[in-house]
Amino acid sequence: MLIKAQIQIRYNLHVKCEMSIMQYWIKEESRNIVFKHKKKRDTSTYLFSNKDLVRLYVPLIIEQMLAMLVGLADSIMVSSVGESAVSGVSLVDSCFQLIINLFAALATGGAVTVGQYLGQKNKEKAGEAATQLVWFSMILSLGVMALMYAGKGLILNHVFGQIEADVYGHADTYMMIVNASIPFLALYNAGAAIFRSIGNSNISMRVSLIMNGINVVGNAILIYVCKCGTEGVAIPTLVSRLAAAVIMIILLIPKKSAQAKQDSTRIYIKKSLHYRANWHMLKSILLVGIPNGLENSMFQLGKILVLSLVSTFGTYAIAANAVGNVIAGFQLMAGMAASLAMVTVVSRCVGAGDYEQAKYYTIKVLTMAYICIIVTVLFTFAVLPLVMKAYGLSYEAQSAAEKILMLHGIAASTIWPVAFTLPCTFRAAGDVKYSMIVSICTMWICRIVFSYVLGKYMGMGVFGVWVAMIMDQFVRGVLFIRRYLSGRWIGKKVI
Length: 495
Known about the structure:
This protein is an all-alpha fold. The chain folds into 2 domains: about 1-45; about 45-485, no CATH class. Helices cover about 85% and strands about 0% of the residues. The protein has 19 helices and no strands. The termini are far apart.
């Protein structure tokens, strides 16, 4: 009887224990279901819907594609002047890329600041930040233009190394004219960044369409009709950037005094010729702009130094490298568009203090970038023979360009997004020093050092230079993934 009672007690305890466990499990599952439901519901209230992302991303891709197509058209049309003209223009363009990156970095700082204020729903301060960005960009650009004219001889004679006399002549002509476009380029970049920060990339796309249309038509008229040389490419570049800057400023200035307050979907700059620096706003802009500018500038400076190495391999190598850069840019246009979109989206999330959304959109934008890059790379592989034929390069230059682009296409589809798009999340969050340090270190250690090791000392030539570039991208990608997973980029807002 005692044994039966003990068995019964043990059975009851077992049943009670199982019931408790079951109840706990049911309770936890209910919580999980509620959490999942809540998470799903929260996703629907996120700042950007899938439709919003498409509206932001697609115009950016089109804008990047227009820029690449114009670059391709420029190089093809100037090739009719001669291979030395292609080389001269490409050398100056590589130098100008340093300036373009400088003002793009400043514009990014402005976009992050405006975006974070918009995330806080503070439209007034967002407009003030936009005003400061435009004015500061204009003042800085005038100084840069003066320095470029003053240092033209130094750049052509020393930075590019030993170049042939005919290449020098074309480079000198092109640089003399295009230098005047620097202020207009800066204003266009500032305006485009402001419109992107409010999620309206359609405007910057349309202005880009006008600018690039003027450029292409002008090139065709001056080169093929007027039989101009290198100036036939330079003059349309100047005119197109002037037109783009004027249009941007007109769109950013409210037509009526009350328009800026009434239109909730737009950001306007102050309609005044009197500029008063707001150092607090400028500090926020420069907090992102300076490290990003240093990163971009050092990156481009490294490319110029590598280009001076390429120039020692001969005119064929310069031409192959120039063509490779144009088509490689086309392969990456979706990734560059994704980088711009990442800044817009993540800065808004950070301004709202919602880092879960920031993480969500980081993965989403990266996924979009990978899909689009793979499609673009496959397309370039398919049309590569036709493009090579259009350039009319020598056999040696064409062979080198084809090898370069096959290698780059593979890297673009695998490594590039985590190396260059992912750090835009850090910049949008205000964590700019880490990406700057990593980018500068990998640039000098991997790209420059190994360019000389592989290209010069191991005899791989221009192909070795591009192998070193891929090594740079790989190291960046690994380090940026680690940074993202660590979460150390969180909590570093600029405002």
